[in-house]
């Protein structure tokens, strides 16, 4: 077997599944309630996930895409095969795509485990290419409340993204069997041969992309948000009046002084602070990288971010949302609040306070040492004086001793005159 054939067989027989980036998981950031969305919505949640951000075994995974669609922080990335499978209907013939679940009795062009397995970004990408008919006939009898709640969230997000008029023009919600029936297009013999040839070329191209070493890093790392950004960029270039898309972005307030804490907490790199030539600093957000998770809002402790705000954008490329003038710390040069009295950051304030306490402790220790040394010197001087007195006492006459003339002790010597 040749090397090419072996790589082709490995690529075709390899079991695909999403990838989990644990560093980007919501549960590893400041929060009040843990997120278990991926484990709750997965049909094999207990068999695959030991906990939401840790996978026990991928073998039961069917690559349905429910966990990818439900992940709030975007830490579960879809497999390249899932990305290609979900966006391939955009290249099909016809102007309408019928999407339904496995429980539906209708004839749909796309059948998934659940309609909510499509993320809102994937549905938005398809809606910009074709009209979408969502078959919701089995949803009324479905007992999976988690999927139903997530589907409502997806549809609400699509309305916010497109706006009500454009959403109604691009989406049709079929609640009954007679709503938006599936139309089969009849092809001529020549059109049929063209379809077969085109399908063969697409299949060969996809197979070559799957082979190791033949897929570029950009293609392997593509997700639905990046594809949506690329297509909206193309539409903006060719249209005279570009469409506007609703996207939730962090809402900066006047309390923000560009400390950079939100930039560090964003694992997807959607927030960047840039210094301008005029001395100001601006916050630049890349919407297609932002998963609207809210980790940056939770990480801000200064009140500089006030939740997420729905903004109308003409493209999902980088956009400047806030400008401010930095006030730097006198000690370390990091940004501080403009109304800071002493002009230093909290870290340097603690360091200076600690240094002052250490200096005071050293001064007190030196004073105590000087007192101990003075006390020792006084004791040594007293001891030396006592020794000097003791050594000098034998050379002096004792009190009440004999006189040098030999008189009786204790009796004074007097001279007598004989008369």
UniProtKB/TrEMBL annotation:
Top-rank taxon, per record: Bacteria
Pfam families xrefs: Fer4_7
Region (Disordered): 364-419
Basic and acidic residues bias locations: 364-390
4Fe-4S ferredoxin-type domain ranges (all copies): 52-81, 246-276, 281-310
InterPro entries for this protein: 4Fe4S_Fe-S-bd
Protein name: 4Fe-4S dicluster domain-containing protein
The organism of origin for this protein: Faecalibacterium prausnitzii
């Amino acid at each position: 077997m040749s090397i090419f054939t072996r790589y082709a067989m490995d690529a075709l027989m390899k079991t695909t599944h999403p990838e989990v980036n644990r560093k980007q998981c919501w549960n590893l950031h400041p929060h009040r309630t843990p997120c278990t969305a991926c484990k709750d919505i997965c049909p094999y949640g207990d068999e695959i996930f030991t906990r939401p951000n840790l996978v026990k075994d991928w073998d039961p995974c069917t690559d349905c895409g429910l966990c990818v669609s439900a992940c709030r922080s975007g830490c579960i990335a879809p497999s390249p095969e899932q990305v290609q499978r979900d966006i391939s209907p955009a290249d099909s013939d016809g102007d309408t795509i019928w999407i339904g679940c496995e429980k539906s009795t209708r004839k749909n062009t796309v059948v998934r485990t659940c309609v909510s397995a499509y993320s809102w970004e994937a549905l938005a990408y398809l809606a910009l290419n074709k009209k979408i008919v969502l078959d919701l006939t089995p949803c009324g009898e479905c007992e999976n409340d988690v999927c139903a709640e997530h589907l409502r969230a997806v549809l609400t997000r699509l309305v916010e993204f497109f706006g009500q008029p454009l959403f109604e023009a691009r989406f049709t919600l079929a609640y009954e069997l007679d709503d938006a029936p599936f139309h089969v297009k009849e092809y001529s013999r020549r059109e049929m041969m063209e379809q077969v040839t085109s399908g063969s070329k697409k299949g060969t191209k996809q197979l070559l992309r799957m082979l190791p070493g033949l897929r570029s890093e950009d293609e392997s790392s593509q997700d639905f948000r990046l594809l949506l950004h690329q297509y909206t960029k193309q539409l903006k270039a060719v249209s005279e009046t570009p469409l506007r898309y609703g996207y939730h972005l962090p809402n900066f307030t006047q309390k923000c002084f560009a400390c950079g804490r939100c930039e560090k907490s964003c694992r997807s790199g959607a927030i960047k602070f840039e210094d301008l030539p005029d001395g100001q600093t601006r916050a630049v957000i890349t919407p297609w990288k932002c998963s609207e998770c809210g980790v940056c809002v939770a990480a801000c402790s200064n009140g500089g971010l006030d939740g997420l705000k729905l903004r109308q954008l003409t493209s999902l490329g980088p956009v400047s949302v806030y400008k401010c003038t930095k006030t730097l710390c006198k000690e370390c040069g990091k940004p501080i609040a403009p109304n800071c009295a002493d002009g230093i950051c909290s870290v340097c304030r603690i360091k200076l306070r600690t240094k002052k306490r250490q200096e005071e402790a050293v001064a007190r220790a030196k004073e105590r040492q000087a007192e101990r040394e003075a006390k020792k010197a006084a004791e040594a001087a007293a001891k030396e004086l006592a020794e000097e007195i003791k050594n000098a006492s034998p050379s002096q006459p004792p009190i009440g001793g004999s006189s040098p003339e030999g008189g009786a002790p204790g009796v004074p010597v007097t001279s007598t005159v004989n008369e």
